Amino acid sequence: MDSVFGQHALTAQIIFVDDGSLEPVPEQFPATPPQNIQQIQTVELRTNLGHQRALCVGLVHLQRSGISSPVVVMDSDGEDAPADIPRLLEKFVAEGNRKVIFAARRLRAEGFVFKFFYKLYRTIHRAVVGFDPRFGNFSVLPAAVLERLVVTSDLWNHYAATVVKMKIPYSTVPIDRSKRFAGESRMGFVGLVIHGLSAMSVFGDTVGVRLLISCGVLGVLTAILIIAAIVIKAATNLGIPGWATYVTGLLLLLLSELVVLSLIFIFVALYSRGQSSFAPIRDCPIYISKVRTVFSRHE
């Protein structure tokens, strides 16, 4: 990163969010003093919150520090390549320094199984939410956007989805995902599913309405089929004796389940709107154990 910044005449302050790591940051870090980085801090959390919530805590820390320069959000495992930062910043400047710029993924380094389930997730997400999630954390955002993000509870679940839901202007830059510096991701299949559901949970209202409409359409079709079965039984000699009873019974059972499911959606939505929510700017600081400056050019 220091080399990339030097090539493009950039400077930066870096903040690592240490998400409950059992390995402490070395006292001599970095081993070689960087030339284009002004300061390096670590925000050490009291426990492992998961990467989205750790990101939320980090953004709250930045907002509380009074930062005024653009913020680059990225993973530190190498999959978000430092060499792509200038491309995001160029797009950021071209958009008037007012939009969030996301890295839209083109090629991924994962295997076939991951790509298959990722494609399946994108299809489901498009169906129940309404858009294709082609971007994640790697992004540049104006400091002013932090003021809006840190007061919404959705940021606690998923950063990129929150930007979209809040209708914050954004744009994308096609960027390939790089390979990790070392090791393999510890996020297994269950973790990936939870991550996907967290993104969709931000749009809970939209998902609930779409599912409610789907239940309504299926309910109408079920009622039509019940009427058709009764008419065929009463007005014709078609069918096997007793078939209408079984078909009508099964369709009535399906219809009752759809009604119950619709009522659950309605009551859950109404109940959640009346509950007090998590406020990141208020609640995130309790997860910070300490903030440590490990490098500063002014010291």
What does this structure look like?
The chain has 299 residues and is α/β, with parallel strands linked by helices. The chain contains ten helices and seven strands. It has helices spanning 2-7, 51-64, 85-94, 112-128, 143-149, 159-165, 189-201, 204-235, 243-273, 280-283, and strands at residues 12-18, 37-45, 71-73, 100-105, 135-141, 170-175, 288-296. A four-stranded mixed beta sheet has the order 3-5-4-6, with helices on both faces. A three-stranded mixed beta sheet has the order 1-2-7, covered by helices on one side. Helix 8 runs antiparallel to helix 9 (243-273). The mean pLDDT is 82.
Order of helices and strands: HEEHEHEHEHHEHHHHE
Structural class: alpha/beta
The dominant shape is: elongated
Residue share in helix: 40-55%
* Lateral strand order in the biggest sheet: 3-5-4-6
Distance between the termini: 21 Å
- Using DSSP, what is the number of strands? 7
Task: Please tag this protein with its features.
299 residues, alpha/beta, 10 helices
Task: Give a short overview.
By secondary structure, the chain is α/β, with parallel strands linked by helices. It is built from ten helices and seven strands. It has helices at residues 2-7, 51-64, 85-94, 112-128, 143-149, 159-165, 189-201, 204-235, 243-273, 280-283, and strands spanning 12-18, 37-45, 71-73, 100-105, 135-141, 170-175, 288-296.
Secondary structure elements and pairings:
Elements lengths: L1 H6 L4 E7 L18 E9 L5 H14 L6 E3 L11 H10 L5 E6 L6 H17 L6 E7 L1 H7 L9 H7 L4 E6 L13 H13 L2 H32 L7 H31 L6 H4 L4 E9 L3
